[in-house]
Structure formats: C-alpha cells, structure tokens
C-alpha cells in the first residue's frame, strides 16, 4: 500500500509513532532528518544524505542500519568496478511503519503485563538507606538485612507501581483499539 506524503507526515505527528521512531534511532534525533531526506528524494546514498544534512557519514550509516533493522528503509548495493568499493543507495519503506509501531507496542504491552504480574504476585522489602528493593525470598535469605549496608529491610508498598502499570497497559490497549494507524 503506497502512502501519500501527507499520510506519512500525519503518522509522524502521532506521539506514539514519534516515541517508537525515537527508540529505533536510539535517541538520535538525526534519524528523523534522515527519513525526511529519503522521503523528499525518494532514494539517496549515505554520502548524499550526510552532505545534505551536514552530518558525519558514520552517524548517517549507523542510523540507516538501525532504520533498516526496523524495516523502514531498504537499500540497493552496487560495486564500482574501478575501485571495488560498494555504494549503497537507500530508499524509504515507510508504508511498513504502522506494522512496526504495532509490533513494538505489542512488545511493550507484553513487557508491561509481565511486570504487572510480577508486581502483583510478589511481596517486596526495601532498604531505606540504599534504596534497594528485594523480593520476599531475597530478603529472607539475608535475614531481612540489606546486603550493602546491613540495615534492616522494611516492607515495600508497591500499589503505586501496580496502579501505574495498569494505567500504561490501558493506554496502549486503547491506542491499539482506537488509533487509526493500527487499522491499516
């Protein structure tokens, strides 16, 4: 399914999409610029992208590989017969973005649900001095004393953590149900 530039940029305005892309880029904001250049040009070499954005070639390559791992770009490799060097020409495959976002959101949801189950099914203790938290079995093994400072462990109330996890799960489940991005 081919998306128009308007549809693509509308997807980029979605905070959930931005968060997933930011995660794909490992926090490197230049990843957005690289995608923007590829959308503008249709395809480009890593060198062309680096020059157009005035970025270091290694950064551009690193980000292109991360974006490629997420399957949001593809490349064509050509060998220069005179130099034996390869040239990579990159093109966007942004139409896969809804699938990538949904897959990552489902992965996040699975992690949140596992964490919620862990929080609901365990009793915790903590050291107020070292701010370390232990499950009951760990606390019992140390005689309810902190292994770092030997202070006495206190019971930890994790109701706020459980509440927060439930809210996050509800948010992501609602996004999957109601966000038009996921109905593609």
TrEMBL record:
Keywords: DNA-binding, Transcription, Transcription regulation
Species this protein is from: Methanotorris igneus (strain DSM 5666 / JCM 11834 / Kol 5)
Domain notes: The winged helix domain is involved in binding to DNA in the preinitiation complex.
Extent of the signal sequence: none
HAMAP family to which the protein is assigned, alphabetical: TFE_arch
Pfam families (alphabetical): TFIIE_alpha (PF02002)
GO molecular function: DNA binding
GO annotation terms (biological process): regulation of DNA-templated transcription; transcription initiation at RNA polymerase II promoter
Protein name, UniProt field: Transcription factor E
């Amino acid at each position: 399914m081919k998306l128009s530039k308007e549809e693509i940029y509308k997807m980029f305005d979605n905070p959930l999409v931005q968060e997933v892309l930011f995660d794909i880029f490992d926090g490197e904001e230049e990843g957005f610029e690289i995608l923007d250049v590829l959308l503008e040009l249709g395809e480009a070499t890593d060198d062309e992208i680096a020059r157009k954005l005035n970025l270091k070639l290694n950064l551009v390559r690193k980000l292109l590989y991360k974006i490629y791992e997420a399957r949001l770009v593809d490349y064509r490799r050509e060998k220069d017969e005179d130099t034996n060097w390869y040239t990579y020409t990159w093109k966007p495959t942004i139409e896969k973005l809804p699938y990538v976002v949904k897959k990552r959101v489902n992965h996040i949801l699975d992690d949140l649900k596992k964490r919620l189950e862990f929080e609901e099914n365990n009793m915790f203790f903590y050291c107020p001095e070292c701010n370390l938290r232990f499950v009951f079995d760990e606390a019992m093994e140390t005689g309810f004393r902190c292994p770092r400072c030997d202070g006495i462990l206190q019971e930890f109330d994790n109701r706020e953590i459980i509440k927060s996890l439930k809210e996050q799960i509800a948010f992501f489940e609602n996004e999957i149900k109601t966000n038009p991005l996921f109905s593609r």
